[in-house]
């Protein structure tokens, strides 16, 4: 039987995966489009699952202003993500500038969250409570990943105030972008959606690497 997961471990694993995907997006030798797609899926599913499942439980143990600031920072990060998703040419000067902005806001968000909410969960919640939170977090995140929460169309809806989530069959028509150094045209947001075994991106007890994710089909 798989041992119960800890919501702290799941959150920290997601943070490390975001950092790994940002590193791939900076590399001209990596599939930067796939890395961006995976990052968008993870960032949104992770943030929304936290706000739905984790933040309400930790509110009694943390300053309200801290939680509200983290949630506001997540909304601002969505705008930065959308700006990168909408860049037409991967590897262009605009791409590099938008990627730098995304890396910066992500680093600040991760730092604040790990110094506050993650530590508060360690201090205030029992192992059983953290395991229950991990399960709730994973269910919400899995639903969002199945709904292609990181597609350009959905991120546009979130940024511009439309709260509804797409269904797995929706958003069939998406903008296209040209891949730098190639004649290929591909949809923005094309590629596979990251799907992990619940309650996190764990496979047989080992954290999957970006190469695992980007090398697997959906």
Structural summary, described in words:
The chain has 218 residues and is mainly α. The protein is built from seven helices and five strands. The strands form two sheets. The protein has a three-stranded mixed beta sheet with strand order 1-2-3. Strands 4-5 form a two-stranded antiparallel ribbon. Helix 1 runs antiparallel to helix 2 (32-58), helix 2 (32-58) packs antiparallel against helix 3 (64-85) and helix 3 crosses helix 6 (152-159). It starts with 6 loop residues before the first helix and ends with a helix.
List the helices and strands and how they pair.
Blueprint lengths: L6 H20 L5 H27 L5 H22 L3 E2 L2 H32 L2 H20 L5 H8 L16 E4 L5 E3 L14 E2 L2 E2 L2 H5 L4
Parallel strand pairs: 1-2
Antiparallel strand pairs: 2-3, 4-5
Task: Produce a short descriptive summary.
The chain is mainly alpha-helical. It is 61% helix and 6% strand. The radius of gyration is 17 Å and the shape is elongated.
């Amino acid at each position: 039987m798989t041992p119960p997961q800890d919501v702290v471990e799941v959150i920290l694993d997601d943070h490390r995966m975001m950092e790994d995907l940002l590193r791939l997006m900076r590399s001209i030798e990596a599939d930067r489009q796939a890395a961006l797609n995976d990052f968008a899926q993870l960032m949104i599913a992770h943030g929304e699952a936290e706000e739905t499942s984790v933040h309400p439980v930790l509110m009694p143990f943390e300053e309200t202003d801290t939680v509200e600031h983290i949630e506001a920072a997540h909304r601002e990060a969505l705008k930065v993500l959308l700006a990168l998703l909408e860049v037409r040419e991967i590897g262009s000067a605009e791409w590099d500038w938008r990627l730098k902005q995304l890396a910066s806001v992500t680093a600040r968000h991760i730092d604040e969250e790990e110094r506050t909410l993650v530590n508060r969960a360690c201090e205030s919640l029992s192992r059983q409570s953290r395991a229950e939170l991990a399960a709730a977090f994973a269910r919400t995140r899995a639903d969002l990943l199945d709904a292609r929460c990181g597609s350009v169309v959905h991120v546009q809806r979130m940024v511009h105030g439309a709260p509804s989530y797409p269904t797995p069959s929706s958003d069939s028509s998406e903008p296209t972008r040209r891949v730098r150094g190639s004649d290929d045209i591909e949809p923005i947001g094309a590629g596979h959606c990251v799907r992990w075994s619940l309650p996190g991106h764990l496979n047989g007890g080992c954290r999957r690497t970006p190469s695992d994710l980007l090398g697997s089909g959906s």
